[in-house]
Amino acid sequence: MRFSGVLGATLALATLAGCGMQAPGVSLGKQVATRLGNGTLYIRDGQAQILVKRRPGSAAIKSLSTFGVRPMAVGRSLSGLGWQKMSVPAGRVSEALSALRGDPAVQAASPNFVRKAIVPRFADVDVPGIFESLFPGLTAGAVPNDPLFKKQYAPQLVKAPDAWGASKGSGVVVAVVDTGVDLGHPDLKDHLVGGWNTFANSADAKDDHGHGTHCAGIAAALANNKEGVVGVAPEATIMPVKVLAGDGSGSDETVAAGIVWAADHGAGVISLSLGGPGESQVLGEAVAYALKKGAAVV
């Protein structure tokens, strides 16, 4: 079994508690967003992005040139699922998708929707006596010496200390699919494995935003080092997978590629504290791929 059931359930609850709201007004940097149905598309230099899956063994896609659709580079992880990123003039997205979906050489065609980091909107809990009332059975020696532990919302909400007798996450790799992770953070640096950056197709998964480091700490910040907070699974290993840029935004393409990469490189739990409106077939396929590999996706 790749992960503990107790750990998986506790991590899921803590992720919802700790990273529970979508960030308002996240900038898209140099890219301009436009609406398409329920979702938001990236537009750059008048070009939108779509994702196309060619039918195996099919002939050329005839509808590409008609609508000015052009192939773009895509990472190996996403191409392994059979998807290709393409650009299309911003004013022709709907008709291009309609034509592609009717092309016998095309298995599926989807917009490349924007996805954003999700951030909490509550303060640390700091009510005198609340910790002791939630954990009446804990002895003083069982309480971590990390100074902010008693103020942490998520571990108190899910009663993480009650689960530590069964598992603290030792041997479990948690992929934080987000903005990257601060590789030198004192609560994280000693239990990291190599990660990936789906924007640059490189191993540089450093955090240039902060959200990914925050979520990595919720999952697995070290306990009893007299530093900061304590993770829900303080003995788990963090795998940083950068799929969101420094402004906290990414796309279906970058997120799906990160999920697949994490599953292919041994993640037992894949954490996604991000979202956005608009249905995505490619994200659904990436999650299904990870589940088939034995990972829990939360």
From TrEMBL:
Signal peptide range in chain numbering: none
Pfam families recorded: Peptidase_S8
Gene Ontology molecular-function annotations: serine-type endopeptidase activity
This protein's record includes keyword Hydrolase: yes
Domain Peptidase S8/S53 per the UniProt entry, residue ranges: 169-298
Keywords recorded for this protein, A-Z: Hydrolase, Protease, Serine protease
Entry's Gene Ontology BP terms: proteolysis
SUPFAM superfamilies, sorted: Subtilisin-like
Family: Belongs to the peptidase S8 family.
Name of the protein in its database record: S8 family serine peptidase
Lineage: Bacteria, Bacillati, Candidatus Sericytochromatia, Candidatus Tanganyikabacteria
